[in-house]
Structures are given as C-alpha cells and as structure tokens.
What does this fold into?
Amino acid sequence: MNPLENFRMAFESLWGNKLRSFLALLGIVIGVFAVTAMISLGQMASAGITQDLEAIAGRSIFVQPNFNEGQTSDTAPIRDEDVAALQGLPVKVLPQLFTNAQYESKPGERRSITLQGTPGDLPRLDPTNKIARGRYFTQAEAQGGLAVAVLSDRAAKDLFPGRDPIGQVVRLFYPNGGRLDVTVVGVLEPPSGLFGALSSGATVYAPIPLIWSTSPSARKGQYDFLVLSLNKGANTQEVSKQVRRIFEGRYGKGKYTIESTESFQDTLRSITVILQALLGAIAGLSLLVGGIGIMNIMLVSVTERTREIGLRKALGATAGLVRQQFLIEAVVLTLVGGVLGVVLAAGLLVLITATVPFFKVFILSPTTILLSLTVSALIGLFFGVWPAARAAALDPIEALRYE
It folds into this structure.
C-alpha cells in the first residue's frame, strides 16, 4: 500500500467519524488559531507603530545636548556653525528653539505654554507638519523676525476657545515679565495615531530670530534641538554616522545625543517580537493539549481496528507499512486542524483590521501560514508515534482473534 493510499484511508477514517474527529481536532484548531493570530497581530502592531511614528516624525535624525551626561543647551549649545557644517548632507536641517512663556486665560490668571522657534515654510521642509487653517509664516518673515505665529491645534483651542484664531493677536509673557505680541497666521492639524498624544501640547510656533530678540534666555546663533529630515533615498544609518562624526570632531564624544526614528522603530520592534514570542509560547500550550488529544484518539482507533490490522498483516503488510498508515492518519488529522485554525485566524484578522483603527494593515504572511501548518504536522507526527508503534507491533494471529 503506497502513501497516497494511506492518505485516502486517513481521510475516509476522518470523514467516517466526523464528531469524534472534530473533537480530537479542536485542541489543534485552537492552538494553531492562537499562534497564527498572535504572530500576525504582532506584525500588524509593529506596522502600525512604524506608520504612526513616521506620521509624527517622518524619517528624521534628532540632535540635542546629551542630558544623561549633564549637558544642557547652555553647556553644549547647537550653534549656527554646526548647522552650516551639516548642509552638505542629504538632509533638510531644521533648527528648533524652545522657551517657556505664559498667556492670560482670563484677567489676572496666567497659564504656561510652549513657545517654539522654527524656520519658515516648515510644512514644506517637514511634511509631518500639516496646516489645518491659514498658512505657515514664510522664510522671509522668519528671517526678518516678524511678529507672526502658528498655533498647534491644542493652543488654538486654549487661546481662542470657540473662535477663529487667524488674524488674532496672542500676548505672551516671558518669565522675566517681558511681553511678546504675535499675530496668528495659521493653525496646524492635530497629530494623529498612537503617538499623537506625545506631540499634542499647546505650542506657539514663531520665527527663531523673533525669539532671539525678545526672550531673556535665548542667545542669538544658538539652538536647543536639531531635526534633520532625510532626503528621499538617504540611508539613515550612514547619515547618522556622518552627523556623529561631525559633532564628535568638533566637540568630542558624549556631549550630544544623535538618534533617528529608525532606532526608535528598532526598539519598538524588539519589544513587539518579545511579546509575540511570549504570547506565542502561551498559545503553544494549546497545541500540546491538542497533540495529547490526537494521541488518545489514535490509540482508540488502533484498538477499534485491531482485527483490520491483523488482516492486513496476514495479507502481507509489513510492520513498517502499518506504522506509516497510522502516522499519516495522525498527520492528516493535525493538518486539517491546522488549516481550520489558519482560516479562523484570517477571519479574526480581517475583522480587527476593519474595526480597530490602530491595525491599519492586514498581515498574514505566507511564512506564518507555513510555520503554523508545519508545527501542526510535526505535532501529529510526534504524538502519532506511540499509537503507530503499538499498531505495528501487533501480532497478526492475536489481532485476528481480537473481539
């Protein structure tokens, strides 16, 4: 009897005992469903995190004083000459300046707000900044230090609740009592996605030269932070190395931190993979239970078919052929369970993609399907060995006498 004939008999046995087969398969179905769903959800979460991170930061490299080493923008400022040294790299250099300010929410009551200095035309230089209303101040307005400003969505709601802020004047107060009046020319879109809350603070964006000339803490020609927005096709790791070489060559090691969105993504992917492995291992316990169920049902099958086994041996079937028959039956059982588990997992993933905004991309990779089916087949092979060996060891005469 060839293996194909054994496969045919295995399916006939499966079909002939549908309820028993289904109950035996249930553990494998649940196990494969859980493992496939866990792996795919991890991949979908990783893709969602990457998309959200790119939505708020794009492909960027960030340079700032190394606060872990005790550096600050006073002890290790980023200077105009540093910005000039980066101009040859395949990036758009976006210097940033931060300072605290206050506004009067009502007469006599002041609240804190972030005043951030940026170059002009920021949405063109960094597409992660999108204008919702009005416009961003131009390069000419920024270089001229004009008293214009753009508000974050949160700042617009705080400063002008229920009113259109475009064209309105915002009066800000520095900690030393100094005053700054700026005219609002635009409002940014609110950040979206999982990390949107990280950049959803109340912020007034103003030209850097305006802050240099009015803030008591800002010094002309110095910045707190650099965002390097990579040009299309630029290699993040290579550009990061070049930036690091430039700053270490000018100031020595350890004074500045240079991080990229790619490094954040790698860290988050590592966390996701660890969670996947942990949840997959827990789900794998279902496969173990399912395998034990398959072994039990195969042992019952060997007992029920003792006379059939004796007859086959009497007609010339070897112990190896009998062993092969029962092993194939066990593998067929677990493979059918594996296919059902993958189909159920695919249905769940489609449902989650359609209903949960964070999971934007449906991912069920061929590798995951192949891995799930391979594991289910190996479970069948492993737990089918004992019943198959027991069937192969039966004495044909004793088996024919079995009642």
